[in-house]
Amino acid sequence: MTTLDLLRRLMGDVPVFELGHVWLAGAGPGDPAHLTLDAVAGLAQADVVVHDALVDPRTLAMRRDGAVLEFAGKRGGKPSATQADITRRLVELARQDKRVLRLKGGDPFVFGRGGEEALTLAAQGIPFRVVPGITSGLAGLALASIPATIRGVNQAVILATGHGADTEEGLDWAALAATGQPIILYMAMKTLDRIAAALVAGGLSPETPAAIVVSATLPGERVLTSTLADIASDAEAAGLEPPAIVAIGGIVTVREQLLALMPRVLEAVS
Ligand SMILES: C[S@@+](CC[C@H](N)C(=O)[O-])C[C@H]1O[C@@H](n2cnc3c(N)ncnc32)[C@H](O)[C@@H]1O
Fold first, then answer.
1. Catalytic residue among 5, 11, 74, 190
2. 187 an active-site residue?
3. Any idea which GO molecular function terms this record carries (predicted)?
4. Which of 75, 111, 136, 246 to mutate to test the pocket of ligand 1 (most atoms within 8 A of CB)?
5. Which domains does the chain have, with CATH numbers?
6. I want to staple 53 with a disulfide (CB 3.0 to 4.6 A). Which of 47, 73, 187, 206 is the partner?
7. Alpha-carbon gap, residue 80 to 53, rounded angstroms
8. 10 Å Cβ neighbour count for 30?
């Protein structure tokens, strides 16, 4: 049975990848177990897969026989393609009547530049479709037993980037601290010390629980819990490296509560 046969059985109608179309798709946080059926349908039909660095090799291996892989991400040390280069390439491939799967980690519209790519494709008259993925900010937390929301603790959750936190364009961290709502940070490992200091200066308690989830869903997954005051130095001492998600707020304590209760669960199933 081919992948498309299986998808037909599971989905009924499988969306048809038309020639000259681009699908802007999310591959989820890493482990192929978190791919959507729509993303698999894209992999099973695409002629070219233009992918970022965070897309797992096992996911790329699911592409149809003969589909070409094009890397469009950042790779340590080597010059990476600019966003303009990437969108130009997507337009070029679509105009060659290729079925182009633009595959990104997580969700393409969450800190993934999918919005910019959609706008450029639309402006150029290229038909495209958005295939959502599970964003690492939510999946990473869930897998570390940290709920993004929990009744009585928070009524909102802030997804923020740490990118640019050390520049003039950085976020107003005091304003975020003033909301009292948990903050989930992407791309924040380099600037975590500054962000933590700015949040404390903005009124958050230095004792606010904080956690880092590294390589969520992947074999190298690691979870570190600490406080806002210590999270950056603890991460450095533990040698934590990106990709990582940082969670700050009362939601983090749920992890400790669940871990403490696990012996009861294990007892019940043994
Ligand atoms: C350019 S952003 C892309 C975010 C992506 N579009 C999403 O929705 O997850 C890259 C950042 O996402 C986070 N990230 C992506 N995959 C991750 C993973 N498996 N574990 C932890 N963080 C991850 C890290 O903060 C990383 O620096």
1. 74
2. yes
3. uroporphyrin-III C-methyltransferase activity
4. 136
5. 3-134 (3.40.1010.10), 137-257 (3.30.950.10)
6. 73
7. 11
8. 25
State pLDDT tens for residues 200-219.
999 999 999 999 999 999 99
Residue 70 one-letter amino acid:
E
**Element holding 141 (H helix, E strand):** helix 136-143
Q: Show the tokens assigned to 6.
A: 């299986």
Contacts of 33 (CB under 8 A, 6+ apart): 217
Encode burial over 146-179: b for 16+ CB neighbours within 10 A, e otherwise.
Answer: bbbeeeeebeebeebebbebeeeebbebeebbee
Single-letter amino acid code for the residue at 144: A
Kindly report, residue by residue over 40-86, the tens digit of the pLDDT: 999 999 999 999 999 999 999 999 999 999 999 766 556 678 889 99
